[in-house]
Write a structure and sequence with these properties.
The structure is a single chain. The protein is an alpha+beta fold and 287 residues long. Among the domains are: 141 residues, Ubiquitin Conjugating Enzyme (Roll), CATH 3.10.110; 33 residues, no CATH class. The protein has a 4-stranded antiparallel β-sheet, with helices on one face. It is rod-shaped, with a radius of gyration of 45 Å. The protein is 51% helix and 9% strand. Pfam families: RWD.
Length: 287
């Protein structure tokens, strides 16, 4: 049966006090007294008599010898409390665990079940020493299992925190669909600001740039409800052209506006004249 110890090597004092029992023996009180005498000798510091009886009640303090470091601070220990019945050992004694530290409620229940199973195996024989040994061995096993569970839970907690941190740094992956949703909400927000008095002045630089590209600013419209062309944007706000200089990479061609000086005197048609006025504006701005 799981959790039960093999046949325990019984100390000599215990053997002497309990030997000679026959199946016809009916003096249970005498047999119980013999076992108590042996237990006092085996557990001089751990044995504590609660009721001299008959039937007697007593408890044995059990403390594990090998305690994992991560549960040692709990100072694990317990008392195995035993109350004889009038016909013990031909019937089971009453067993309970008290003052338990270091075990969960579930583990304590498991330990008591194991002790009761062990007692059932030894009905008809003096069994208290065997029960105490089984309790100690099972106690140590349950502490080791608890230590392993705690280590597993701690590793899982750390892994979850690391994953959460990675997700925070990774941010949200942008797809065309999510970008379109964000863009619509962003422009809707800007439009709401522009409806306010002097709303244009409330815009952040990013909002103003988006409003200009989206044709939301009245000051940058070529006509009511008409988006500005690229040329109209440059004419209205030359900083847009200058800001592109930040994106010029090695190998790109730059244009010296001074090369176009004097072109005002050339015979240009109306369209060329209009386009050249843009260059003139850039030159004046640079001066």
């Amino acid at each position: 049966m799981a959790g039960l110890p093999p046949r325990v090597e019984v100390p000599p004092a215990y053997q002497i006090s309990t030997q000679g029992r026959s199946s016809a023996m009916t003096d249970h009180a005498e047999e119980q007294a013999n076992e108590l005498e042996a237990l006092r000798s085996i557990f001089p510091d751990e044995f504590e008599e609660l009721d001299v009886g008959p039937p007697a009640a007593f408890r044995i303090h059990i403390k594990p010898e090998d305690t994992p470091e991560d549960v040692a601070h709990l100072d694990p220990s317990l008392y195995l409390t035993i109350t004889y019945t009038e016909t013990y050992p031909d019937t089971l004694p009453e067993l309970s665990l008290t003052d338990v530290t270091g075990l969960t409620e579930e583990d304590t229940h498991t330990l008591l079940e194991t002790i009761n199973e062990c007692a059932t195996e030894y009905v008809g024989m003096a069994m208290v020493f065997t029960l105490a040994t089984s309790a100690k061995e099972t106690f140590e096993r349950l502490l080791q299992e608890r230590s392993e569970r705690m280590a597993t839970e701690e590793a899982a907690r750390i892994a979850a925190e690391e994953e959460a941190e990675r997700q925070r740094h990774a941010g949200t992956r942008v797809t065309p669909a999510t970008f379109d949703i964000w863009k619509a909400k962003f422009l809707e927000e800007i439009a709401g600001i522009l409806k306010q008095p002097k709303g244009e002045e409330l815009l952040t630089p990013a909002q103003r740039a988006a409003a200009a590209v989206g044709g939301l600013l009245e000051s940058l419209k070529g006509g009511k409800g008409t988006k500005l062309t690229g040329r109209q944007l440059f004419e209205k706000d030359q900083s847009l052209a200058k800001s592109d200089m930040a994106f010029i990479e090695e190998g790109d061609v730059t244009v010296d506006v001074e090369l176009f000086e004097g072109m005002e005197d050339l015979d240009l048609d109306d369209e060329d004249e209009e386009e050249n006025s843009v260059l003139a504006n850039f030159r004046d701005a640079d001066d």
